[in-house]
Amino acid sequence: MRIGDARTAEDARGFTLLFVLLLVVLLGLLTSLAARSYTQASRRVKEEELLFRGMQYRDAIGRYHRFQGRLQYPTTLDALLKDPRSAATVRHLRTLYTDPMTDNAFVPIKTPEGWIVGVRSGSGASPLRQAEFPPGLETFAGRRAYREWEFVYRPPTPLTAPTAVPPGRRGLFR
User: Fold this and answer.
1) What is the rounded distance in angstroms from the CA atom of residue 173 to the CA atom of residue 52?
2) What's the order of all strands across the beta sheet hosting 150-152?
3) What pLDDT does residue 30 have?
4) Which residues of 97-126 are buried (b: 16+ CB within 10 A; e: fewer)?
5) What gap in Å lies between CA 73 and CA 6, rounded to an integer?
6) How many CB atoms lie within 10 A of CB 146?
7) How many other CB atoms are found less than 10 A from the CB of residue 127?
8) Measuring CA to CA, how many Å separate 37 from each of 41, 46, 102, 121?
9) Please, what are the averages of pLDDT over each run of 10 residues along the chain (174 residues)?
10) What pLDDT was estimated at residue 37?
C-alpha cells in the first residue's frame, strides 16, 4: 500500500462525515419547518371551531331570550340545555361546548344583574385571523387576543316609528 492511497481514503472518510453532518442539519431544518406549518394549520382549525362554537352559544342565548315572548336571558349556561321555564324539554343548545383554544369551559359574559348575554374564550393567545369574519362578527377584526372575541347576543332593535308630518306639509307637492 502506498502512502498516497491511505491519505485518499482518510480524505474520503472526512468528506463523507461532513456530508452526513450537513444532511442531518438539513433534515432538522425541514422538520422544524414542517412542525411550524402543522402548528399553524392546527391553530387555524381551532380558530374556525371557536367561531362555530361561539356562534352556537350566541344563537342559543338568542333563542332562550325570545322563547315564548318572555325576553329573558339565562342565568346559567346549563339553562340552554334544558329551559327551566318550560315543563317540556326545550333545548336551545345540544351540548355545552368547550373552548377549543383552552379545552376549558367558555367564560360567560354577564350583565350586572347576573344575566348571561354571551360567551368568550379564556385564551390570551394572539389570533391568526385578523379580517374577513362572518356577518355579525366584524368587530373581531384587529383584536389582539382570543379573549377579546366576545359572542354576545344583541336583540334586534325595534323599527322606529315614522315621525309625524307637520301640518301644512301633508303631500310631496303642495
Assistant:
1) 53
2) 107-110, 116-120, 150-152
3) 83
4) bebbbbeeebbbbeeeeeebbbbbbebeee
5) 87
6) 23
7) 20
8) 6, 14, 20, 24
9) 57 76 86 79 93 96 90 93 90 95 96 95 94 90 94 80 49 44
10) 75
